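Work package 3, deliverable 3.1, input record:
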Amino acid sequence: MTAAGDRLGPTLFERSRPGRGGGKIPHPPKEALARIPADRLRAKGPRLPEISEPELARHYVHLSGLNYSVDTGFYPLGSCTMKYNPKIDEWAARLPGFASLHPLAPDELAQGTLQLLWELEQALAEIGGMKAVTLQPAAGAQGELTGILMVRAYHHSRGDVERTEVLVPDSAHGTNPATASMAGFSTVTIPSAPDGGVDIAAFTAALGPHTAAVMITNPSTLGLFESRLCELLEAVHAVGALAYMDGANLNAIMGRFKPGEAGFDVMHFNVHKTFGTPHGGGGPGAGPVGVGEKLMPFLPSPRVLRESDGKFRMERTGERPQSIGRMRAFAGNSGVLVRAYAYIRAHGADGLREVSDDAVLAANYLKTRLAGILDVPFERHCMHEFVASAATLKSETGIRTLDVAKRLIDYGFHPPTIYFPLTVEEALLIEPTETETLETLDAFVEALRRIVAEAHDDPELLHSAPHETPVRRLDETMAARQPNLKWRAMTGSQTPCPD
Amino acid sequence: MAYGPHTSEDRASMLAAIGVASVDDLFADIPPSLRASGLELPEPESEVDLSDRLRTLSDRNRVDLVSFLGAGAYRHFVPAVVDQLLLRGEFYTAYTPYQPEISQGTLQTIYEYQSLLAELTGLDVVSASHYDGATATAEAALMACRATRRQRILISRGVHPHYRQTVCTYFGGASLEADEIPLVAEGPAAGTTDLAALERMLADGDRPVAGVVVANPSFLGLLEPMAEIGRVAHAAGALFVSVVEPVSLAVLASPGEYGADIAAGEGQSLGIPLSFGGPYLGILACRDALVRQIPGRLIGMTTDVDGRRAFVMTLRAREQDIRREKASSNICTNQALCALAAAVYLASIGPHGLRDVAALGAARAAQLERALTEAGAPRLHSGPYLNEFAVRVPNAAEVHRRLLDRGVLAGLPLARLEPADPTLADALLVCATEVTKPAEIALFGRALGDEIERGRQLSLESPGVGWPAGSSGRQAGEVAP
């Protein structure tokens, strides 16, 4: 047993013993490196752990057991769309033809993947009502950057270089303002209207000849459809700015609303949210971007093209001079895109619409059932997620959202997103997704009902939650004040607790 | 629906609880004028049909050729244990470890990844991952600008062209300057970063340099004089950014050893499949002093309220969800599962295994060099390399295409990625790794020898007709007797 406790295991480094492991790689000839000048070689080999394969398997299987995941249980993490990740998609991405294909393989060797990527572009363009799609961005945030760089290139191509501002509502994901900064714009934050929607008057007042774009998350991060969208888009276009749609919440509206048709000029898709590709403990995802006519020339290069003979090819370097260029190496997160393609083919149009319908139905059901238990600040029907708040509970009992979230863990649930959006006090952003049974949703309601009762009867139980986890609340202050970001045992300095 | 659980009774009871007659009522907020015109997609497919379709598409790719293609993405042996462990749903269906009490698995694996990469790079701080080598390099260059408050970086033409293009895209947005350092044209140092040119560029007092970015091995496979470059960069007050290939770090001097401040690189070779370009693993590492400038998640060790060791995301004040427009980057989702793959890979082959991978690749590459020289394709440069190098081949693109018909993927015609560089017009970039077999090298050598000889015969028979530059070589082949 380690001093770390009986439920946490040792690190890889604590498991290491000189002489363990090996046997995977044939030995090279002794003189293999003799032709390389000694001063270019490493003075001292890297001190990597030495572990036998059985130990290694146990190490990771044990660690996996310390995680909560979608495969473990209900994960209503608002704004992240933690839906079930179909197993056939994992199988597909591992097919040798996909997994072993080199990214610089000549087009004639890559026809299967190129066809898949091209068809996926068409499908996403149809779902988003966009003219064209790039699959290159590696994640939603990189999709945002791609989109805003295209906006910049568009304005500059027209000699319109005075547009320095991007307007973002205060309920937006942090990636929106961070993206605007990376693309060289300043962010103007627009407060939301009291009903949670965009404040048209505030937007209109801020719009002007300096506005490059507005970034709108629709449905919003409050889970509400922006019902004043027509007015907003009209006002944006009237001043010559472009409209970006953050597609993080697309899971609510497939088949019901197409951003491109409504007038958005550019949007990104989070395939790891909407199209069921796994979140991977933080990634990888993929963030394809769809554009309307105006931005097509600026799409990143290379694109996948279909020739008149039905063959597919990658665009060549410099083929489309107005392109914003490359966002990354090679074509994109193709392995993730295979999964998204499989997901879309499994569903078809009716299936995707049903995904959204069921996601919205489940969210409204939970919202209705929770209305008497926690505050639900916005009464109108929500989309695929909704905001609840522990503000009243806090004033009555001193119990905060954080405590409620931690106690939910004891009941076997992953907590919702907490303290986001920033515009709602003591917020819990709850997104059940379409893949949870009614029984699970009811059990979640029951857990929250009991937790609220506990808050009144036995608040200490919540202050000290969670109780059943491998570790309890962490000292995050120490983690930040004295950062320990790598194992130092091998250098002989502070080793917290070896065997 | 394919994966939904709801029966019609479930739906009816949910609608009744909400108090609406149909799901349509829940979408009443969408203004009628904005409702979708329809959705046209191929019909849904059963899992039987879908698996057939996917297998057919996969089979349409050709991955059976003998391959010498690297150029930033490498074929390596991946022990079976790596993918078996990656298939644990507890890892791959979790998200960012926002709730550390139920995410210790992901948190500890990333902490271990950070530790392993810190050891390989010889640096102190490793981010939990970036998208790929190109974006990690761009973020490293941006870091250098933030840390020095200077606006200009110098990037060697020996850095992968895709990385240079990505830096250019990122820098265009931020209105920063990225200038390219030329390569030495001839002599023993040909193909490596031109130190004299670098010194001249650094001497421009009006445009101070934030960082100097050089890859080792370079895109052309060459070993760069990293220690000298670092000294020159530091003398000008610039940071030194090294672009690394992690397998090579088992044997080559590490960024920490030669004085780099930041290392960026592509981690694909650490147990991650080629998958036509991604998902890969962006490595980003730096010295302690730069910890508050590094973008992306960082996992730290701490204790819980009971004093037990535990891991948590830390130094979060750098990140977009806290700092918004003042964040060090907009990165949110990263490549955590790929970082896990890299950690399992490194732990499974161990220090000796990693050294053997690097050294065996070097040994096979030396064999490859001999075979190709014998075939009439000598190296383009003479400096030291590890396991990748460029060879001169007349009409490289055409020879490359013809070799495909003989089952050989003869590396990369360099003109494809560097069309504007005349010195690379007739060259192939080839690599060998531990999975390259001697028989494959022999096959490549024979086939290349045949093609070069064929081209020589053609140009002798009809000067100016055989192998005309820029025209289709298939025609040239057809006019041959």
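Residues 213 and 241 of chain B are 5 Å apart (CA to CA).
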